[in-house]
Amino acid sequence: MHLSHFAAPADNQPGGQSHFCPNCGHSLSASDTFCPNCGYQLDGSQAAPVQPTTPTPTTNQTTTKPSLRERLRGGKNQSPASKKNRRKWTSIGVVVLLLIIFFVWGFHHYSRQVTLDRAITDIQKGQNMTNDFTSSSPDLKITKSSLLPINRYYSAHAGDLSSLKDQLAASGRSDNGNFSFRTNGRHMLFFPKYQIIVSPVYPTVTTNHTGNKITLDNKQIATATSDNYSKRLSALAPGQYHLKASGKIGKHNLVNSGDYHITSSKSYDLDLTTISANLNTVPGSDIYLNGKKIGTVDNSGTYKLKDEPWSSDMSVSAHYTSSAGKAVSNAVQLQKNDDGNNIDLKFPNLISNSDADDFYSNLFETVQAVANGNDDETDDNGDDMSDFFSEGSTGSFYNQLQKMASGYYDDDDIYGTEMTTSIAAIKPGPNGTSVVTFDVEYDFELEDTHHIQTLRYTANMKDTSHDNSANLSYEITSVSGSTTIKDTHRDKDDD
């Protein structure tokens, strides 16, 4: 018989038949309280040790890294407090950015130069001026109507407006003291408030007959109570105003009216009277009174102004138009004591008759020298022929004269040539030029006779008296083609 050995189950209770340690399996005696091998307490008060277990990895498990957005945001599972803080700091950042934009815009928009540029544009256009101006005196209330005269003047005088801008930008004050430009408070607590401060003027008007009615910008402001009446006007902004006095003198209804640039507290004469004067200028010129054409000068060169209602802003000028363009004389302000006088209306830089006569006489003296074989092309003053022309020796008329004079010299039938000049007319040209019509008489000495021809030319000339590079006070800029006005022969026996 085959015997199988069976191990009896461990009994960890004392007093048993056989004992084994329940922890390590070592044989124990009945009296052992602790295992002599591992020290296990055999009375049952110590729990069995827990063996560590190794987790079984899951097949095909993938480890995913958090995305960039999740890392920046702190992962999807942020606490409510973290989200609240993030929103708070985002809001603060937006507010700071808006404040920066606001202050950058404000300090630019309300800066001194930008404000002045805006104010000058408003003056020219007549808009938003009540925002641009303030008054230095409570006498002058800043309203759209009270500032209208400023716009009225400067919108018609762009050059003066530009000068005003330059003065305010440079010194903060206009040359006449009427305007200053400086801070006057603040915009929105933070930005400087620049304004043009206007100083009012207090003009006086006078007139010479009881009952004369005085108006300012077509609004009646007074009626004269004496023949020597004056009235001081209330505060006005410096600018352009229309003053008028009207009344009946004898059987005549008279008016003294005009536009005035009032910039000071001076007196303005609105007497009712008439004026007559002789206006002397270039024949054919149109006469303008305060910008309105009233007549044309006759061939004598005189226009008779007769019984014209006088005003203290009475200005006359002459306008002359030709194929060269339009010329305007200097304006003359007529005074009451000019009544019955001669008034000259002169065109600027217009050559005089005597200067023109000398100029062309000297020019053709040089031409005559070439025609008679003289190598020296100068006049008695030492001026060369080319000095008479703005283009010098490259000018077309200079070369025509050279060619003509050389041809006379080369002509064997001509024994000698004499040239005599005279001035036919002088007219004003545009931009201070002169249009001179002159005649040249050519006397050709032939074998038995003199052949005499007179040719007429018209030349445009300019004043070069202020040009240091020019040798003469005037120069020819162009010449039109010649016209024959005389062609005769004279026997030498008649000399």
UniProtKB/TrEMBL annotation:
Residues 49-66 have a biased composition (Low complexity). Residues 46-85 are annotated as: Disordered. It comes from the Bacteria. Residues 273-347 form the TcaA 4th domain. Residues 20-42 form the Zinc-ribbon domain. It holds the Pfam family Zn_Ribbon_1. InterPro entries: TcaA_4th, Zinc_ribbon_dom. Keywords: Membrane, Transmembrane, Transmembrane helix. The chain crosses the membrane at residues 89-108. PANTHER family: MEMBRANE-ASSOCIATED PROTEIN TCAA. This is Zinc-ribbon domain-containing protein.
